[in-house]
Amino acid sequence: MTTTIAVTMVRDEEDVIFATVAHMLAEVDAVIVADNLSTDRTREILDGMARAHPALVVVDDPDPSYRQSAKMTALALRARLELGADWVVPFDADEWWYSPFGRIADVLADVAPQWLVAPAALYDHVATGIDDPLELDPTKRIGWRRELRAPLPKVAARWREDLVIEQGNHGASYRGRPTTFDELLVVRHFPYRSVEQLVRKVRNGAAAYRAAGDSLPASFGAHWRQWGDLLDQRGEEAIAEIFTTWYWQEDPRRAVWAGGEIQPPLIFDPVR
């Protein structure tokens, strides 16, 4: 029997955490969530879910720095030692994973053992002026997505003792070159859901990279560092301008001119 465990580290994701974790619990054999010092209702929600779902394990991450690669790799090891993981699915709280070919755990179980990495196509969803404001679940409210996939995929990784989950969960490395299978998985991404949420995410992200100090290259999280400086210098209005320019479309059916380039119409393709 092949065991697939999903792992994630989260902070202040109360608006989306229930939907994405509940969905992931249906796709894999168990989920490990490391709560990284949340100050909203994220931990309360997770603890309530864990009481109802024995396959959900919630742990503390008291380290404020955003050393994602090291932390996710450690969670992968925990998934192996405590739950017998054969495959690890590293995901973010704002991601909705699925496979067109069936339940993720079943799909990965059928991958031949010589393949170590299963890539996942990543599509960003965008908030719009015609979203239903009464729908609190962003995975239901934000049904419009960009037509083109994001340039970097996400990955699921077969457990091996030399597995390293890379920063951003965009890759997995092993000693030697990893073998990558066909694209069997899809990720719908809901990263920027409102001005208030983006301001909170910028504040947390910038602080986490500052806490990492010199342990991470300056290129890691460059936009969070830049946006954090912008928030300090110009306030929340500057972050609101970023949101409305790049991560919001009043009418998703129309192309818009933004930031010196044309943003094409979005596609209505809600998750199911």
Task: Describe this structure in a few short sentences.
By secondary structure, the protein is α/β, with parallel strands linked by helices. Helix content is 33%, strand content 23%.
In terms of topology, how is this protein built?
Layout (H helix, E strand, L loop, with lengths): L3 E7 L6 H11 L2 E6 L6 H11 L3 E5 L7 H16 L3 E4 L4 E4 L5 H6 L7 E8 L2 E2 L9 H4 L2 E2 L8 E5 L5 E2 L6 E2 L11 E5 L5 H18 L9 H13 L1 H11 L1 E2 L6 E3 L2 E3 L3 E2 L4
Helix pairs in contact: 6-7, 6-8, 7-8
Textual characterization of the structure:
It is a single chain. The protein has 272 residues and is an alpha/beta fold. Helices cover 33% and strands 23% of the residues. It contains eight helices and 16 strands. The strands form five sheets. An eight-stranded mixed sheet has the order 3-2-1-4-9-6-12-5, sandwiched between helices. It has a two-stranded parallel sheet with strand order 7-13. A hairpin with a 6-residue loop joins strand 10 and strand 11 (172-173). Helix 6 (195-212) crosses helix 8 (236-246). The longest helix is centred in the C-terminal third of the chain and has 18 residues, at 195-212. The model has no long low-confidence stretch (mean pLDDT 96).
